[in-house]
Structure formats: structure tokens, C-alpha cells
Amino acid sequence: MKWLDEYSPAAIADLVRQVAPELADLPIVTRELVNKDEPVWWSSSAVLGGRYVAKFAWSRPAALRLAHEVAVLDALSPAVPYLPKVVASSTDPLLLVTELVPGTSLFEVIDAIDRDEAGRQLAHFLSELHRAGEQLGEVPPATLQPATTDTLRAQLGKWIRPEQLPSVLRWCDWADDVLATPRPQVLVHADLHGGNQVWDGARLRAIVDFETTGLADPEYDLRAFPGTGPGVELVSATMHHYRELTGYQLETDRMMAWHLRTALGDVLWRSEAGTPLADHRTPPDWIDDLTARFSALDL
Fold first, then answer.
1. Is 93 exposed, middle or buried (CB count within 10 Å of its CB: 0-12, 13-18, 19+)?
2. What is the pTM for the complete model shown?
């Protein structure tokens, strides 16, 4: 496997010329880079001629993630719905080109669309993905991203109100108990937040970014849904339709345990890094939101 020696427009153009020469004359628009100091994130994408998305990497850790996505998309298409259409792919040199799917993220439309219909479409994607593991052969475990409860207990207190800390400690103990019991593992997307979903109004067009796909609890794929408002309507609808499609009842407490670790982990790392929270509110506000979600789900 060979990846870029450097990140530059010239290097990207040469890469496209090698792998997809028919696209070589299209103008290339690159993205602004983030995490420039961490090699595991030395990957990015560019839009080719307003019609295609090219993904590439310039470090070994980032290249391994992208190569994994190439293999996943190759194995799952066309059996799993809502995948981006692959136009060209290669690992020597490493490049993935997919069709650009017009639309917006779920975050931009969730307040205006029917959450039951949105949940039905997401459940369709999840039900097909979760039973597609055998198509990939030997699949590694997904890299679980949320912060550990030990880290949350030790470090979160300074960012929230003192009277909120007992609830956080109690939630962490509860999450440990819930997740202590093993569950059958399925193929999960593992990073299914609203920004990795492309919607055209109320219609789901595509799910993107399969670099972290692997084996985990099926509930792990819903860990961001309770925070995608308003309320918990979306996650409830998705779980309902998932049961209708598969006959399998996703466990609300297990989903919420993963959500707890995800949400509090996000609060912690952003606060420690001096980065605003996703909705530009405060850590105490997020604790209040979690309290409301536990109540709405009768947990």
C-alpha cells in the first residue's frame, strides 16, 4: 500500500491522474485541514469538478483507516442501501473516489422532518448493515470511541456544577453495569452521527465515512441519536422500525449507556481542549439534557 508523501494540490492531482485518469482534468477543491499535528488524522478529501469526492491519506495510520473503508464499500455494495457510489478506488496508490451526493446533514433538517419517517429510513440502513458482516469475512472489532467511565469520573467534575456530579457518578456506575454483560456483535458503522448522513429534505440519500466500521453491539450505532433532537423521537422511531424489520429488540438501556459515554466524552475533550461544544452551550447544559433524556426514556 502506498499513500501520499505530502499534502499538496500537485500531489493530489498526480494521485487522481494515476488512479482515475478520466477525472484528471477536473478542477480540484480541497478541504481545510484539521488535526494537522496528529498522523492518525492525516487524511482528507477533495471535490473533483463538483461531481466527485476523492479521499486520500499521507500517513500510515490514516492510510490504514482509508484502506479499510475501500474494502468495506467494495464488499457491501450494492447489498447495503444508502452507500456512496464508488467511481474508482486503489490501495497502490491509495485513493477512494465516490460520487458527490447533494444534500445536507441530518443536523440541518431534523427540526423540519417527520422523525418517524427518518427513523424508518435509518432503521432500513442499520438492519441491512448489521447483518452484512459475513460479506466482509474476518472483521476486526470497531474501535470504541467514547471516553471510559473512569476518565469521566476523574476529570468531568471541574466542568459542571457541583450538584450535578452525583448524577454523573451514578450514571457512570449504571453504564458499567449495563455494558458488563456481553452481547452478540454485528457489523456497525461506528460513527453514525448526523454529519455522516446526507439528506435531501426528508429523504436519506447517503451514509458516508466507513473508516471505523467493525464489530460491536448493534446499539453502539445509535449512540448519537438521543442527542439528535428534538427530544428522543428519532431514536425511539429508529428502534421501533428496526424491530419491525429484523424482529430484534434493541436494548434502550444499552443504547443509552453508549450515548452517556459518548456525550460526556465529547463534553470532556472539548472542554479540556478549549473547543466550544457542538451546539455552543455549556457542559452543565449538556448534563441537564442527559437528565431529560433519561426521564423521557423511563430510565
1. middle
2. 0.93
Grid coordinates of 274: 478549549
Per-residue pLDDT of the chain (299 residues; tens, 9 = 90+): 999 999 998 999 999 999 999 999 999 999 877 666 788 889 999 999 999 999 999 999 999 999 999 999 999 988 999 999 999 999 999 999 999 999 999 999 999 999 999 999 999 999 999 999 877 778 888 877 778 999 999 999 999 999 999 999 999 999 999 999 998 999 999 999 999 999 999 999 999 999 999 999 999 999 999 999 888 999 999 999 999 999 999 999 999 999 999 999 999 999 999 999 988 999 999 999 999 999 999 99
DSSP string, the chain: ----SS--HHHHHHHHHHH-GGGTTS-EEEPPP--TT-GGG-EEEEEETTTEEEEEESSHHHHHHHHHHHHHHHHHTTTSTTPPPEEEEEETTEEEEEE----B-HHHHTTTS-HHHHHHHHHHHHHHHHT-GGGGSS-PBP---SPPHHHHHHHSGGGS-GGGHHHHHHHHHHHHHHHTS----EEE-S---GGGEEEETTEEEEE---TT-EEE-GGGGGTTGGGSSSTTHHHHHHHHHHHHHHS----HHHHHHHHHHHHHHHHHHHHHHTPPPTTS--HHHHHHHHHHHHHHTT-
Give the count of beta carbons closer than 10 Å to the beta carbon of residue 102: 10
Which grid cell sits at 224? Answer: 448519537
Beta-bridged to residue 28, according to DSSP, are 48
Q: Amino acid identity of 47?
A: V
What's the 3-state SS for 211-266?
Answer: CCCEEECHHHHHCCHHHCCCCCHHHHHHHHHHHHHHCCCCCHHHHHHHHHHHHHHH
